[in-house]
């Protein structure tokens, strides 16, 4: 008799749990949205904050600082106004405020960003460094820390991205193309064509950072760069800005790193950010500072005009998760938006074999589930 009562109680619990699950499923909120979103940003970044809201940050044209948008459903975005102002007499910054990323830590919010540094004794044409500012709220105001950039590697850097792992903080960034000419088969080919005397490149580095954001620990490690050989699997798509006679530069920038299982995935962008060939690839590693191996299925996000679409210039992405679904946030352009960079959000996933796939660019209606 006791066994029968025990079994009945278990069945009752399972029934209640099943009903509860069905109720939760019925109450799940389904939101339909369509790309591009009504936000004119380059380099978009989405923070899912502890207050339950989403906050979007990005590069705004002709703005000495950054603004933010907030949303409760990833479809409708409220303009929160200016959250950080640079280029002030007290600031270390001058202009070119790019690629903000915001992190919530211990009740504070930290914004990582790139800007031109006032300290420029040799009058460099590109003098970018990466700084950090702090606020009590995701909408600011953010106040600069350290009285200057986080560190000075001796060359211009942009596109800072952070990884928090086992009590350590890792900083990833892109060394700018500026004054970084590199010999390669692509450079040899461009010279033979009579197009360019040299090809400058940007490379992605990683370095451990002090937990208080006041500097770095050790020497930066080179993680990703454009291929040297033209028969490299990555050479064609990463060299399109050169081979299309667009500009004498090859970029590896806009890194975003995350961990899935025991593998680190680093998404990155290649080609001219202002052109149609801007595209996204990824590389994987077993350690935060590599070595990283580029994926065979690159690029995973690129223009779709050749296949009847209207989107070009897809790049500088990041990933966030909501309700067990990965999303890729990036900027792009369409025939309607012209030169303005606008924000896209598409679903992405890691396949059972470890391959990363972005389902985009998509301009037809899609859904978020909450």
Overall description:
- There is one protein chain.
- With 370 residues, the chain is mainly β.
- The protein has a domain at 39-296: 5 Propeller (Tachylectin-2, Chain A), CATH 2.115.10.20.
- 11% of the residues lie in helices and 43% in strands.
- The strands form 7 sheets. A 4-stranded antiparallel beta sheet has the order 2-3-4-5, with no helix packed on it.
- The longest helix has 26 residues, at 2-27.
- Mean pLDDT is 93; it is low at 1-8, 10-17 and 19-25.
The CATH architecture of the domain at 39-296 would be 5 Propeller
Give the integer mean of the pLDDT values. Answer: 93
Summarize the main sheet.
4 strands, antiparallel
Q: Which descriptor suits the 3D outline?
A: globular
Question: CATH topology of the domain at 39-296, what is it called?
Answer: Tachylectin-2, Chain A
β content, as a range? Answer: 35-45%
Helix content: 10-25%
Number of strands: 24
User: Can you identify the CATH superfamily of the domain at 39-296?
Assistant: Glycosyl hydrolase domain, family 43
Order of helices and strands: HEEEEEEEEEEEHEEEHHEEEEEEEEEE
Q: Which consecutive residue ranges, at least 5 long each, have pLDDT under 50?
A: 1-8, 10-17, 19-25
Sheet with the most strands: spatial strand order? 2-3-4-5
Helix run count = 4
Structural class: mainly beta
- Give the class-level CATH name of the domain at 39-296: Mainly Beta
Radius of gyration: 22 Å
């Amino acid at each position: 008799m006791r066994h029968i009562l025990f079994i009945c109680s278990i069945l009752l619990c399972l029934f209640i749990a099943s009903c509860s699950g069905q109720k939760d499923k019925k109450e799940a909120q389904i939101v339909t949205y369509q790309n591009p979103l009504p936000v004119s940003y380059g380099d978009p970044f989405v923070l899912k904050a502890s207050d339950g809201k989403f906050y979007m940050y990005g590069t705004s044209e002709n703005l000495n600082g950054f603004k933010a948008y907030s949303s409760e459903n990833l479809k409708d975005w409220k303009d929160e106004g200016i959250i950080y102002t640079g280029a002030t007499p007290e600031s270390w910054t001058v202009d070119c405020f790019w690629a903000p990323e915001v992190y919530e830590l211990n009740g504070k919010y930290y914004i990582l960003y790139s800007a031109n540094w006032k300290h420029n004794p040799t009058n460099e044409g590109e003098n970018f460094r990466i700084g950090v500012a702090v606020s009590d709220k995701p909408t600011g105001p953010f106040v600069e820390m350290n009285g200057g950039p986080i560190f000075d590697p001796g060359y211009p850097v942009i596109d800072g991205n952070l990884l928090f792992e086992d009590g350590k903080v890792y900083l990833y960034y892109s060394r700018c193309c500026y004054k970084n000419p590199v010999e390669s088969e692509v450079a040899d080919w461009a010279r033979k064509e009579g197009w360019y005397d040299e090809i400058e490149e940007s490379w992605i580095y990683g370095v451990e950072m002090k937990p208080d954001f006041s500097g770095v620990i050790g020497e930066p490690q080179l993680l990703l760069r454009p291929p040297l050989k033209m028969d490299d699997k990555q050479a064609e798509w990463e060299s399109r800005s050169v081979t299309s006679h667009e500009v004498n530069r090859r970029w590896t920038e806009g890194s975003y790193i995350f961990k899935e299982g025991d593998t680190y995935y680093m998404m990155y962008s290649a080609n001219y950010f202002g052109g149609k060939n801007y595209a996204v690839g990824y590389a994987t590693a077993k350690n935060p500072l590599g070595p990283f191996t580029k994926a065979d299925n690159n690029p995973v996000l690129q223009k779709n005009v050749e296949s009847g679409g209207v989107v070009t210039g897809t790049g500088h992405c990041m990933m966030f998760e909501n309700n067990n679904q990965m999303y890729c946030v990036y900027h792009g352009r369409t025939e309607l938006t012209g030169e303005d960079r606008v924000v896209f959000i598409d679903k992405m996933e890691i396949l059972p074999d470890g391959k990363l796939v972005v389902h985009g660019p998509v301009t037809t209606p899609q859904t978020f589930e909450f």
